[in-house]
Design a protein that fits this description.
Helices cover 14% and strands 33% of the residues. It has 147 residues and is of the alpha+beta class. The protein is globular. The model has no long low-confidence stretch (mean pLDDT 94). The chain has a seven-stranded mixed sheet with strand order 6-7-8-9-4-3-10. The two termini are 24 Å apart. Strand 8 and strand 9 form a beta hairpin. 27% of the residues are buried.
Length: 147
């Protein structure tokens, strides 16, 4: 993936923002550190080329001897995975303003994947009544997230 225009993103509360010139490899990582850092079954990450933090200051946590993770100290949104030995930064795909720009192209550490992960796409989808109920509930939610 090689976008030529600026790509933007940030945390839920909007206190930390970034822009990148282009995106590189997009992946999902199944290792336990990523699962815990994201509170999810895997971490979607994409390499951000020409990354610039444009608003606020991300907090950093040295999650291992080789890397640190960036996050918003106010809302807790996971933002980055940064290796100590190079300047490559991977940003959390979900923190992009348009995550559709970075569909995953590979899986990392799949041998650590939760046993049910590969079957998620085969789970039953809600019927029309449940979809309508979900839509009504979602319409009642007033988001405090910064667009």
């Amino acid at each position: 993936m090689n976008e030529s225009t600026d790509i933007t993103g940030g945390c839920q509360c909007g206190n930390v923002r970034y822009k990148a010139q282009s995106l590189g490899r997009s992946s999902v990582c199944h290792c336990r550190m990523c699962q815990r850092a994201f509170g999810a079954f895997y971490a979607p990450l994409v390499i951000a080329n020409g990354l610039e933090w444009t608003e606020g200051t991300r907090r950093l946590f040295a999650s291992s001897n080789i890397s640190q993770r960036g996050f918003c100290g106010d809302c807790g949104t996971p933002l980055s995975l940064e290796n100590f030995d190079d300047d490559q930064v991977e940003i959390a795909t979900g923190s992009l303003d348009d995550p559709e720009r970075a569909p995953p192209t590979r899986q990392i550490n799949h041998r650590y994947a939760c046993s049910f992960t590969d079957g998620i796409g085969t789970l039953p989808e809600p019927d029309d009544e449940e979809v309508a109920d979900n839509d009504a509930w979602n319409a009642s939610v007033i988001s405090n997230q910064r667009p």
